Structures are given as structure tokens and as C-alpha cells.
Amino acid sequence: MLKLLRSLLEYRSAPEVTPSVPEGQRVYAIGDIHGRCDLLCHMIARIEADEDGREPADTTVILLGDLVDRGPDSAGVIATAREWAQRRRVRILAGNHEEMFLGSFERDDTLRHFLRHGGRETLLSYPITPDVYSRATLEELRAIMNDVVPADDVAFMQGMEDRIQIGDYVFVHAGVRPGVPLEEQKVSDLRWIRGEFIEGSDARDFAVVHGHTILEEPHVSPLRISLDTGAYASGLLTAVGLECTARWLISVQGEPAAEAA
Predict the structure, then answer these.
(1) Is 0.90 surpassed by the pTM of this model?
(2) Fewer CB in 10 Å around end: N or C, the chain?
């Protein structure tokens, strides 16, 4: 009921606009993957099949950030995303977890935060054994990270985007701060905002597609599409397809995690 009321409020606050992707273009956006390389591989197959079943278009795939942490194979997710981007246009947003991962190479406080929020699983997806991990001090662990995390993976994350706009759709990891023009949005909000954005009812002339806030099922309303369905624990990875004014959801379901990280 609460979700329905929020959708109605958001709809009533919306201007008379139907969000649209420019003619001739198609967009697929994928929610937070969080180390579930198995689900990403299934999603790639589903999107490629969906694409093959439609008329030719100038297609862009967008990953909404948080490729890493919590799930068992963040290194595999990064490798798979990099390989897919060599075959088609794939644009990737930096999430708050990529921010933490990168910051961990430089700052102890960020490394501690990273490890508490799924970073352990990320590091163990690289050539680090649990025994070596458990015995390492922060200083030793940082040295190990520099040895085992490929420079190409670090550069790949450093090259991720903060915001993407295609037609009437704005793609961000977490959301946007209500009342602030797009060009003045802070990167910290684009990657970390939650309640102020989700509960806000500011009228916009664009739709926001985002992840970051876990839902049991995707939220789709006129000016907001939320796609984080907790893949690392639920086994459910969700994407949306957009073309002209059409929208369609694509999901893949795998095994839930034995225990959420």
C-alpha cells in the first residue's frame, strides 16, 4: 500500500510529459550486480536475445553501478563487463561501492568501511586466500591489493561515469537531489543519496533510472525506475529496456545467497 501511495504521489507531481528515448535509439539499463557474475552472464544472454528479436536500433547498454562487493565474484563481473564493452556500446556508472573500492587503495578509514560492506568478498575473488586475508594487517592487505588487483581493473573503475542522459532519461547510481539542477548535482548525491530522493515529490521534466536502494521487485513509475533487486542475496537481477516511449522489464533469477553478506 505504501509503495502504491508513493507511486500515486509521484505521478500527481509529474509534469505533462511522457519520457522518451530519441527515435532510432534503444537503451537497456541493468541494476546493481554486486559480484554476481553468474547473473550478469545470464542477463547478457537475455539482452542479446531481446535485441535480436527487435528491429535494428542504435543501442546503448548502461550498468547502473555497484558491480562489486558482497557477491562471490566481483573480479569476474569486472572482466565480463569489460569484455562485453568490446562487443557493443556499454556505458557504466560508478556506484558507491566502486568509490569505496578505489578509495581503499589510499585511505585506511575507507578500506575499513569497504571491508565491512562486502569488500572482503571482492578481495577474495582475486588471488587472495582466506587465510592470507585473515592474517593481514591493513597495511599488508593494501600491499596485497596492489599486487593482485590488475591495474586494468582499477583503470576501468576510474573511467566509470557519474551521470548519463539519453533523451528524457537520466541514469544515475543512487538518485538526484530534489530541487537541484542536473548540472549542479554533487557526485556524492548521485552515488549515495537515498531517502531524500525516493521520498521527494519534486516535479521533473525527465525520468530517473537508478539502483542503490534494494527492493523486492523493481519500481516503475512515470518519472522514476528503480532496478536494484538485491541480486547478491536474492538471486534476482533486473534490467529495463527503453525505446521511444516504450518500457519493458527483463529479469534473471539464480540461486539466492546462502547468507547475505
Answers:
(1) yes
(2) N
